[in-house]
Specification:
With 312 residues, this protein is an alpha+beta fold. The chain contains seven helices and 14 strands. Bound molecules: benzoic acid (BEZ) and fe (iii) ion.
């Protein structure tokens, strides 16, 4: 019986001589990086070696499984191009993206509560999205229910942050981002700036659940594992401001059934679930926009930015 709480691994069950041979290889490979000039690179490669070998020894990886893994990664590479980033998808569905975010965005408490939590970036952000004036519409013709979003950007002390750059992007009602169409459209994305009092407001479309791209190797992995490719409905934000930590996040839609079922990339945090209040057709809009017979929704999202990390 084991004398510690450590689970027994496949490696532990090998004879002493076999364990010695396997461990000697781990140590030899790790030591091969000792000459790296960059200390950080050395640390990362040595740790990667130890964890990778531990995994192979733990599951007693067969040669056939190793070949399958190589074929899988080759397929991930082959489908990746300027428009399709299957490696990010793979990182996302393995939870590696969210773990990296957790490690790099420690909980930041201030006198008025914490900074807004970060979540996964995803593959659909595009540089140079259109500038949206305060109260403007970033839907750009994307199908979906009109949705009014407003809020204030503040720092941890509660001081409003003027001039914060707010990038927003989202899928349309059919579950697709503009870049997933072949016609070059720009829709469901834009950037705007918070005003002197830190406030912002814009129109977009109410987010709905959609599947991550699942017609490639990552989709086949999900299927083999009996996992769904669906993401909970969300609106992406990236907020940058001087001397403050850049925030990459989403807001999720309270009541969305997908929240209970699970999010394919583990991106949901309770603090990011917001109430999108439904407004029946005919309800006056905040800016007097005439929506005719259409219903609309509104949501408030106040953003709190942590201080930028300082060196040392
Ligand atoms: C997204 O929300 O856009 C996304 C995130 C991770 C993988 C695929 C899509
Ligand atoms: Fe998304």
């Amino acid at each position: 019986m084991s004398t510690t709480d450590e689970p027994t691994t496949g490696a532990d069950q090998q004879g002493i001589e076999q364990q010695r041979i396997e461990q000697r290889l781990v140590d030899e490979v790790a030591a091969s990086f000792a000459g790296a000039q960059d200390v950080r690179l050395r640390t990362v490669l040595e740790s990667l070696t130890r964890h990778l070998h531990a995994f192979i020894r733990d599951v007693r990886l067969t040669e056939d499984e190793w070949k399958q893994a190589i074929d899988f990664l080759t397929a991930v590479g082959h489908i990746t191009d300027d428009r399709r980033q299957e490696f990010i998808l793979l990182s996302d569905v393995l939870g590696a993206s969210m773990q990296t975010i957790a490690v790099n965005n420690p909980v930041q408490d201030g006198p008025r509560g914490g900074a807004t939590e970060a979540t996964v970036f995803g593959p659909f952000f595009v540089e140079d999205a259109p500038l949206i004036e305060p109260g403007g519409d970033l839907a750009g013709g994307a199908a979906g229910q009109p949705c009014w979003v407003e809020g204030t950007v503040r720092d941890l002390d509660g001081t409003p942050v003027p001039g914060a750059r707010i990038e927003v992007w989202e899928a349309d009602d059919d579950g697709r981002y503009d870049v997933q169409y072949d016609d070059g459209r720009v829709a469901g994305r834009g950037h705007l700036f918070s005003g002197e009092d830190g406030t912002f407001r814009f129109w977009c479309v109410t987010p709905t659940p959609y599947p991550i791209p699942h017609d490639g190797p990552v989709g086949r992995l999900l299927e083999a594992a009996g996992r769904s490719p669906m993401r909970a409905a969300h609106l992406h934000f990236m907020v940058t401001a001087e001397n403050l930590r850049t925030l990459v996040t989403h807001i999720f839609v309270e009541g969305d059934e997908q929240l209970a079922v699970g999010d394919a990339v583990f991106g949901v945090k309770d603090s990011l679930v917001q109430r999108f209040v439904q407004q029946p057709a005919g309800t006056p809009t905040p800016d007097g926009r005439d929506l005719g017979e259409r219903s609309w929704a509104r949501v408030q999202f106040d953003i709190v930015l942590a201080p930028a990390a300082t060196d040392g």
